[in-house]
């Protein structure tokens, strides 16, 4: 059904190619297939000058207006450059907009401002990101969707291990709900692939709360792929070295996108 890359105990490695080992550089690498340490070396709210794979897809006639992104972290409008790309990005504490909001979207819009602000306005709770994404998918049937959850990272930074584990379990359930939905919707059924990865790793031992170039091992990551068009390699136990650039390459293959 799919493939899991990055079990280093089996000799399979996935690493970042950027030398920063934190979020904005990591997401840029995932979205563009390459590092840009010269221009992206902070988490500042600067619009990404690099064109992401999402933007390139949105420029294709068959996909124009059918790409959307959702994220718990507030920087995704900048990383995806929603102003230039024209891709709708619901991230941070943004709400659902439009004249055709569902009852659930209206409810989420009311509840989000009243939710517990655990992460100092930089990220909302993942349940809102997931809820907005699910409703948009059901209503609009976009062809390409990006969703980013954040609670595991945020709770890790605060050293809240039990909350970290609970958040990881919650994300598993959210992915399960997404998969079950697309397999029961004729628009998506047997035509949809999921690619799951992370923007950076974490340190070992008492360094598990940190990441960045000063934290060894936090450039070690993983990639999971499953669904239509994905090679069924299972948990890959072959000695291989991969980088998160593999995400863009896989998307290009799935959508038959040729480099110009």
Automatic annotation (TrEMBL):
One of its GO terms (molecular function) is catalytic activity. InterPro entries: Alkaline_phosphatase_core_sf (IPR017850), Metalloenzyme (IPR006124). It comes from the Eukaryota. It holds the Pfam family Metalloenzyme. This is Phosphoglyceromutase. Residues 133-232 form the Metalloenzyme domain.
């Amino acid at each position: 059904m799919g493939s899991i890359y990055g079990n280093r105990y089996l000799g399979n490695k996935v690493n970042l190619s950027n030398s920063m080992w934190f979020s904005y550089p990591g997401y840029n690498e995932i979205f563009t297939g390459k590092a840009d340490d010269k221009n992206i070396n902070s988490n500042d709210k600067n619009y990404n000058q690099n064109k992401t794979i999402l933007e390139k897809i949105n420029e294709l006639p068959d996909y124009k207006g059918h790409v959307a992104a959702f994220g718990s972290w507030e920087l995704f409008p900048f990383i995806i450059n929603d102003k230039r790309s024209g891709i709708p990005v619901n991230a941070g504490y943004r709400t659902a907009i439009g004249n055709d909001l569902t009852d659930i979207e209206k409810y989420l819009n009311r509840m989000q401002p009243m939710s517990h602000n655990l992460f100092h306005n930089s990220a909302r709770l993942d349940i809102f990101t997931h809820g907005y994404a699910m409703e948009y998918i059901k209503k609009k049937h976009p062809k390409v969707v990006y969703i980013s959850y954040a609670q595991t990272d945020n709770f890790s930074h605060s050293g809240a291990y039990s909350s970290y584990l609970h958040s990881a379990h919650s994300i598993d359930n959210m992915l399960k709900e997404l998969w079950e939905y697309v397999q029961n919707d004729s628009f998506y059924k047997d035509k949809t692939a999921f690619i799951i990865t992370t923007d950076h790793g974490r340190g070992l031992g008492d360094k598990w709360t940190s990441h960045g170039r000063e934290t060894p091992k936090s450039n070690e990551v993983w990639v999971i792929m499953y669904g239509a068009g994905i090679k069924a390699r299972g948990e890959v136990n072959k000695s291989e070295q991969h980088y998160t650039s593999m995400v863009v390459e896989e998307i290009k293959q799935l959508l038959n996108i040729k480099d110009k």
